[in-house]
Amino acid sequence: MLNTKQYLIEFGLSMVLYIIAIFFSISFLVNNPHTPWKVWISLLPILPAILATIAVIRALKRLDELQQRIQMMSFAISFAIVGLITFSYGFLENAGYPHIPYVWIFPFMIATWGISTPIVASVYK
Amino acid sequence: MKNKLRELRSKSSISQADMGKILNVSRQTINSIENGKYDPSLPLAFKIAEHFNLKIEDIFVPN
Q1: Is the pLDDT of residue A2 over 70?
Q2: CB A125 to CB B32 under 8 A?
Q3: Does residue B6 sit at the A interface (CB-CB below 8 Å)?
Q4: How many contacts (CB atoms, under 8 Å) link A and B?
Q5: pLDDT at position A1, please?
Q6: ipTM above threshold 0.85
Q7: Does A65 contact B29 at a Cβ distance shorter than 8 Å?
Q8: Distance from CA of B5 to the nearest CA of A (A)
Q9: Does Transmembrane appear among the keywords (chain A) (predicted)?
Q10: What is the pLDDT of residues A14-64, one digit of tens each?
Q11: Neighbour-count burial of A70, counting CB atoms closer than 10 A to its CB (0-12 exposed, 13-18 middle, 19+ buried)
C-alpha cells in the first residue's frame, strides 16, 4: 500500500521539515510576539504539510486499481466521519459546548483515514 | 464474477507475486481477484487474458 521506499523517504523528509518548522515557528513567536512576520511565521509548518500531501498524492498515483479503490473508500469514510462529527459539534458549540481549535480537524481526518484503510482492505481479502 | 485465474496461474507455476509483477499490480490484488472479492477493470482483464492467450470470457464467468 502506501509503504513503498520512495513514499517513506518523501513523507519522512516532509515530517522532519514539519517538526523543524513547528519548533522554529512556536519558539520564534514566543520570543518575538510583536514581529510583523507573525502571520507568515505561524503558517510556516503548512509548507512541509503541503510537501507531505504531495508525497501522499504521488504515492496514490503509483497504486494499482484495487489499492486505489481501497484508498478512495477509506477517504470517503474519513470524509463522512470527520465531516459529520465536526458539523454536529459546530451545532453543539451553539448549545454552549467548548470551542475546539480547527487545527485538530486535519489530524482527525488522517487518523480516521488510517483506521478505515485496513478495515476496507479486509473486505477484499 | 467467478474466474479461473488461480487455476490458470497454478498450471503455469507462477506465484501470485510474480503474476502481480507480470500484470503490474500487487500480490494482494491477484489474491483478491482469485478469491472473487474483486472484479478487475476491463484493461486488467484483457491483460490477464492476453497473458494466458485466452479470451476474457474463457477466464471470467458471470455468477
Answers
A1: no
A2: yes
A3: no
A4: 30
A5: 59
A6: yes
A7: yes
A8: 16
A9: yes
A10: 999 999 999 999 999 999 999 999 999 999 999 999 999 999 999 999 999
A11: buried
